[in-house]
Amino acid sequence: MKLVRFLMNIPNSTTQPITVELKNGNIISGTLLSCNPPMNLNLKNVKLQQPLQDPILLQYINIRGNQVRQILLPDELNIESVLVKSETKIKGNGAGPSARPATNGITRGGFRGRGRGRGRGRERAF
Questions:
Q1: SUPFAM superfamilies, alphabetically (predicted)?
Q2: 41-96 per-position pLDDT tens digit
Q3: How many C-beta atoms surround the C-beta of residue 46 within 10 A?
Q4: Contact (Cβ atoms closer than 8 angstroms) between residue 79 and residue 3
Q5: What is the model's pTM?
């Protein structure tokens, strides 16, 4: 299971604040609103702590996923219930040998789009 799937289910499980440490050393605490597949985080009621500066209070903040170093979850979070919710369901036509029928090179457009469209037999005149 991917970490992102787990994080996407946390807003449904708790309203406790989480703490996010960024690669630049900033520490952000707030309530997780949402997380998307690139692990971008949306938080509300945020406290932003920059190194050697006073904390800043913000209403909302968006964090780019590749800037996250670590995420600290609250102790009250029931991790097992979040894990059960975040398990992926197996779908009928997923990846694998039975995912798509063999088409032998023929797609929705038939044989259109093959080659440059020049006919046979006649030479090109310039």
A1: Sm-like ribonucleoproteins (SSF50182)
A2: 999 999 999 999 999 999 999 999 999 999 998 888 888 877 887 776 555 555 65
A3: 19
A4: no
A5: 0.65
Give which of 100, 96, 73 is closest to 13, Cα–Cα: 73
For residue 106, give the amino acid letter: I
Q: How long a stretch of residues is the chain?
A: 126
Strand partners, 9: none
How far, in Å, are 60, 71, 86 from residue 80 at the CA level?
Answer: 28, 17, 10
Judged by DSSP in three states, 101 sits in: coil
Q: Spell out the domain ranges in the chain.
A: 3-77
Q: What residue type is assigned to position 117 of the chain?
A: G
CATH architecture of 3-77: Roll (2.30)
